[in-house]
Design brief:
Organism: Oryzias latipes (Japanese rice fish)
CATH class of the largest domain: Mainly Beta
Protein name: Anosmin 1b
Keywords: Signal
InterPro entries: Anosmin-1, Anosmin-1_Cys_box, Elafin-like_sf, FN3_dom, FN3_sf, Ig-like_fold, WAP_dom
Low-confidence stretches: 1-6, 12-25, 293-307, 340-366, 432-468, 581-590, 640-649
Radius of gyration: 37 Å
CATH architecture of the largest domain: Sandwich
Distance between the termini: 65 Å
GO molecular function: peptidase inhibitor activity
Length: 706
């Protein structure tokens, strides 16, 4: 064991916590790391005599405690400011070094390094040209370019080239580096130093950078970042990630300074297999809307429509997972209504009881049958790129759903998926339940295996409703009669319950949401009986209707009525003067058509950035009639695709764009694939106007479209 080995052990003990810093490296940060290494070399040099004496004492007396008690505290005090600068890029405040001489001395040394650069000022008589001017052009080295110092020239201070720049500074190590990887994926990086005349300990500063891709690239590499500071000529790295091309460089530093870093090493890529990505975080439903026939403006990912034609669209949001071995290509979303699973379970239970009563010996449904049923009721979609939100549309109102999101990455031709991040939520109800603007409660969780669906059997749950002693309100389909839009509503009580007061009912209605932003006060009437026809309704509105016994206001029941658009009634042969806000003026033919849909592609950080542009037809005489655009892109085919099963379906995404916008940028389109584009005009009243379609071929990575 040598003195250098003792110093190396000490340095590792003090700076162990700062080995794996991975912050972006700028010029100032590199200089601070070099200053920290100079500070460390100074401390080890000052205490070299004590370290040598202590080492001999340990060998002679075999008493390691003597060394730690008498010398280690002073060395640690000296190294404390060096370590602080390495970790935080800040010099310790004076209070942190109170009554600690070694700490204060190191702090002052670091402060001098910040104000004075490496090298000496040349003699004043050697100054020539502007350097000899009798002016005060600087007051410290920081006021000069990085390669110069602020020096006195006999009558002033100017920026001059330093003398003795590398006096006493160790030589750069050789460029060649060795890489040795063990079975656990740990890599030992080694280098060879040139002969050094430095009498001080040499501290080595190792930095790395990397890029992701099939081939190594210095143009797309990350910034240089400090990896380790050591006294030895090798470093064991335990956190190199697969599928990344690494480069290293090393600098030899002592208290006098450094000659800089070696040229970058050859590229190195780890041989270990990458790990699957982590699941996304914080999955949540941020918005829910009811869609019905005539007012459905968006067409996103659809499941099935309910029998009444009313569906729920939910906006799903999540946060990307922590950085892993591979880039996230897209996300896999799967959802399934829980009531289907529960209803099947309940049906099987009733059938089993009946079979027992009749002494039949038919078997229960097998597990494979249940799994097959789940597959039929589940829906799966892949996002177009690594986007963090998705509209899921076509869900059933008032229904609990189990939803899971998985991160998807690719390693060559192999698809790697994360564990499922699960979310259980309930969609907003339709006319059969009270409506609330607040989102239903939901919960999310992470599951390393397939989701286990909770039982939904509470008495008050909308999944398994039980008869209650409450009034029920229902509405027929709205119809146009006597030159006005009207709807018949009727209400009833459960068969086993009859209220004491059956004389008068209070019926109220008002438009809750209208496509033309129509506002109207609540209307009310008193009805004797159990039905009434509401007249004078607005087109394309969602009405809230409520009824209650006049004598018992707490018996109120609520229903929702969706009225059709005026244009849909006109198409059935009715001669109507529809609102001009709902459709284009009939007196002239206005062609609202997008034209010249073009695509530009750029590569950004290994992903495809696509920009689509268009212009409107010159025949669009009324630009104000355009309320927006609906841009849809559908993946038709993918090169080297290994997607099978439900994921082999067409992947489609839609984005709604403002009427003043003439371009849209889409991130994450798959390279080397065929996409079908459609740009459609949304006119006043939510109607879909003319559309333009185009098929494009996305370029492969590292190529550009001319």
């Amino acid at each position: 064991m040598s003195v250098l080995r003792v110093g190396s052990v000490l340095l590792w003990a003090v700076l162990a916590v700062s080995r794996a810093r991975r912050s972006p490296t700028e010029l100032e940060e590199v200089q601070e790391h070099i200053n920290s290494a100079r500070c460390t070399s100074r401390c080890l040099s000052l205490h070299m005599t004590q370290i040598t004496a202590a080492f001999r004492h340990i060998q002679k007396e075999h008493r390691l405690s003597y060394y730690f008690i008498n010398f280690l505290p002073f060395i640690l005090q000296c190294l404390q400011p060096c370590e602080e600068l390495w970790e935080t890029r800040r010099v310790l405040p004076p209070k942190a070094c109170e009554k600690q001489t070694e700490c204060m001395t190191s702090r002052e040394f670091l402060a001098s390094l910040r104000s004075s650069r490496q090298g000496d000022c040349p003699p004043p008589q050697r100054a020539t040209g502007f350097a000899a001017a009798c002016v005060e052009s600087c007051s410290s080295d920081q006021h000069c370019p990085s390669s110069r110092k602020c020096c006195f020239n006999g009558c002033g201070h100017t920026c001059q080239a330093p003398a003795n720049l590398y006096k006493g500074v160790p030589l750069k190590p050789r460029r060649e580096m060795s890489f040795t990887e063990d079975s656990e994926g740990h890599v030992k990086v080694g280098w060879v130093s040139k002969f050094n005349v430095s009498m001080e300990p040499v501290v080595y500063l190792l930095e790395s950078r990397w890029n992701i891709g099939i081939h190594p690239s210095e143009d797309h590499a990350s910034p240089w970042s400090a990896v380790a500071m050591t006294l030895s000529e090798e470093v064991l790295l335990t956190d190199l990630r697969p599928q990344r091309w690494y480069q290293f460089r090393v600098a030899a530093v002592n208290s006098q300074g450094s000659r800089g870093f070696t040229t970058p090493s050859k590229h190195y890529i780890s041989s270990k297999d990458p790990s699957p990505p982590e699941p996304p975080m914080n999955i949540r439903v941020s918005n829910q809307t009811l869609n019905w026939a005539g007012l459905q403006l968006m067409s996103k990912v659809t499941e099935r429509s309910s029998e009444s034609g009313t569906t729920v669209a939910v906006l799903l949001n999540w946060e990307p997972p922590s950085e892993g071995d591979l880039l996230i290509r897209n996300y896999r979303i799967t959802w399934m209504p829980l009531h289907v699973h529960t209803a099947h379970k309940h049906t099987h239970s009733l059938q089993a009881n009946a079979q027992r009563l009749h002494k039949n010996k038919q078997k229960w449904p097998t597990n494979s049958h249940r799994q097959e049923q789940k597959k039929k009721e589940s829906n799966t979609v892949l996002t177009a790129g690594a986007q963090n939100e998705l509209w899921v549309q076509g869900l059933l109102p008032g229904t609990p759903y189990s939803l899971s999101v998985q991160s998807v990455a690719y390693w060559g031709q192999k698809r790697l998926k994360s564990h499922r991040a699960q979310l259980v939520f309930t969609t907003i109800p339709n006319a059969d339940g009270d409506f609330s603007n607040e989102l239903p409660s939901s919960s999310s969780s992470l599951s390393p295996s397939s989701p286990s669906y909770p039982s939904v059997s509470q008495p008050d749950s909308p999944v398994n409703p039980v008869p209650s002693e409450k009034l029920r309100l229902e509405a027929a389909a709205p119809h146009y009669h006597d030159n006005q839009l009207q709807v018949k509503v009727y209400w009833k009580w459960p068969h086993h319950f009859r209220p004491k007061h059956q004389d008068l009912y209070i019926l109220r209605w008002h438009p809750h949401t209208c496509i033309n932003n129509v506002t109207s006060k609540e209307k009310m009437t008193t009805v004797q009986g159990t039905h009434h026809t509401i007249k004078g309704l607005h087109f394309a509105c969602k009405y809230q209707v409520s009824v209650a016994l006049k004598a018992v206001p707490g018996s109120e029941a609520v229903a929702w009525v969706m009225t059709p658009t005026c244009s849909s009634i006109s198409s059935r042969g009715k001669a109507l003067a529809c609102n001009t806000k709902e459709r284009l003026p009939a007196g002239r033919k206005v062609v609202l058509r997008p034209e010249q849909l073009t695509a530009d592609f750029h590569q950004l950080n290994g992903t495809l950035l696509s920009t689509f542009r268009w212009r409107m037809s010159q025949h669009a005489l009324d630009p104000g009639a355009v309320e927006g655009f609906q841009f849809t892109w559908t993946l038709q085919s993918e090169l080297n695709s290994d997607v099978d099963g439900p994921e082999h379906a067409l992947i489609s995404q839609t984005q709604t764009i403002a009427s003043t916008q003439r371009s849209v940028t889409v991130r994450g389109l798959q390279a080397g694939s065929v996409y079908q584009l459609q740009l459609q005009v949304l006119t006043a009243g939510g109607r879909k106007g003319a559309a333009v379609s185009k098929t494009i071929h996305t370029p492969t990575i590292n190529t550009s479209l001319l």
